[in-house]
From TrEMBL:
Record bears the keyword Disulfide bond: no
Originating species: Pusillimonas minor
Pfam (any one): ABC_tran
Identification of the protein by name: ABC transporter ATP-binding protein
Gene Ontology MF, one: ATP hydrolysis activity
CDD domains associated with the record: ABC_DR_subfamily_A
Keyword Transmembrane helix: no
Entries under Gene3D superfamilies matching the protein: P-loop containing nucleotide triphosphate hydrolases
Residue ranges occupied by any ABC transporter domain in the UniProt entry: 6-235
Source organism, top-level taxon: Bacteria
Amino acid sequence: MASPIISIRNVSKTYTSGFQALDNINLDIHRGEIFALLGPNGAGKTTLINSICGLVNLTAGQVTIDGFDNVRQYRQARRCIGLVPQELTAEAFEKVWNTVSYSRGLFGKRPNPALIEKILKSLSLWDKRNNRMLTLSGGMKRRVLIAKALSHEPPVLFLDEPTAGVDVELRKGMWDVIRGLKQEGVTIILTTHYIEEAEEMADRVGVIRQGRLILVEDKHTLMRSFGKKQLTLELKQALTRLPDTLQDPHIALSADGRQLVYTYDTKDDTADIAALIDRLYRAGVVYTDLHTRQSSLEDIFVDLIKETT
């Protein structure tokens, strides 16, 4: 197997106040993947990203980026990274073209107008190239931040809440941009509050809580292993309570008594729906409709956070 493009070993961060933001994090990021880092507010997501990027001094541990130690070989490691922070920071009176070109120069790269043009066009910013930053919407400013992060052609891109404050239509446009970057071979690490964003795009998911990485898993494996399915039956007549023959920890009666909800693991192929239907028939319970729902990544995330609280 190819060596990881980012390797994080035994990383911890404790501030002078005594607060431990990161607790012995170990993680490999594979070349060319989209990795989503999920966690509640204050879990350590931004601290971990800043630690990898060399913006936070570690208390313990080591981070290498494309083989470069991010402390001993800081310059080489930093050139491998494009970082898009949460905050919309930019020179208000600077033009889009200039601010993106200037970012390239900061990394010692020679001017490359053709590349800057390609980046701006890929982010639908070409017609805004001569606009001053203060005239742009929040969504466009965030696209400029991505353009700046890509201007020095880094193999790794960090997106910290990339669609925060962006409307639904623009958010989906950003998803297309991120997918396009992956197709070009860029490794992408994103944090997000929009868990459907991770479900839509990520190859792997990591969940962090109270500074600890509690789970790292392939998205599809995670959905199969931790997901559940619900079979909901619409009843012809409302029930005041479940009949004794239907008393089961997997069966619940809705508050209005008009629905029965049967919950089972997606990995459990032996779940016998036919047997449940037979039990309903024997109990004299008549249903008029039924439908199934599979748990989303958000459902799984909420369950994981509850389990570790």
